[in-house]
Specification:
By secondary structure, the protein is of the alpha/beta class. It has a single domain (40-206), classed as ABC-type transport auxiliary lipoprotein component (Rossmann fold). Helix content is 32%, strand content 33%. The protein has helices at 2-17, 84-99, 170-197, 201-206; strands spanning 28-30, 46-54, 62-67, 71-80, 104-106, 116-128, 136-147, 153-164. The termini are far apart.
């Protein structure tokens, strides 16, 4: 009798909780494109690009959303292909290389000597829902460009861009962030290369490898 009761309890438990075995579908994985940037005159410089920090909440691989009351959340069932700092850094390096302007562009584990370092902080990289309408992709970077030879700061500035999503859907929110990132990256490149080009010829000669 005792065995029968235990068997019945096990069978009942299996029936009650069997539905909990349904697997949660894996999250959709997104990335941002490395936007094509305008070419220009070559620079006698080797650039090191470092994404050194983020606003709290943007350092992981979640796709952040901002809500009224300073509330931060993440899109359900979706994530970036890698943590935001690495995602931004790899896309910027590819875009900067594509301009053909610096002799080389490296990340923070570069194996070769750099003449200039661009340090970037990610201040915004989120879908903004605070105005009650369709979400707005917000991207903002704080950047400092320095010369490697004497650690002199050549320029410090911020760039920002936004793009409203056409629908409140994962794919369109990511597309809005991608578009905002492309514009912010273009301004970042323009201001970085302008500061490097403005250096006196003698200063450039002193920092050549």
């Amino acid at each position: 009798m005792r065995t029968s009761i235990l068997a019945a309890i096990v069978a009942l438990a299996t029936g009650c909780f069997g539905g909990l075995k349904n697997e949660v579908p894996p999250p959709l994985i997104y990335r941002v494109d490395a936007p094509p940037l305008a070419a220009g005159a070559p620079l006698a410089a080797d650039l090191l690009v470092i994404v050194d920090g983020t606003t709290p909440g943007l350092d992981g691989d979640g796709i952040a959303s901002r809500w009224p009351g300073n509330r931060l959340d993440y899109l359900a069932g979706a994530r970036w292909a890698e943590a935001v700092p690495a995602l931004v850094q790899s896309a910027l390096i590819e875009s900067f290389q594509g301009t053909g302007r610096p002799r080389s562009v490296q990340g923070d584990i570069g194996r070769f000597r750099a003449t200039h370092t661009l340090v970037i902080e990610v201040r915004r990289f989120d879908a903004d829902y605070t105005d009650g309408g369709l979400p707005v992709g917000q991207v903002a970077f704080s950047a400092t460009l320095g010369r490697a030879s004497d650690r002199r700061v050549l320029a410090a500035f911020t760039v920002a861009a936004s793009e409203r999503a056409t629908e409140n859907r994962q794919s369109t929110v990511v597309a809005a962030l991608d578009a905002a990132f492309a514009r912010a990256a273009g301004e970042l490149a323009d201001r970085t290369f302008a500061a490097m080009a403005a250096e006196p010829a003698q200063a450039s000669a002193n920092i050549a490898p």
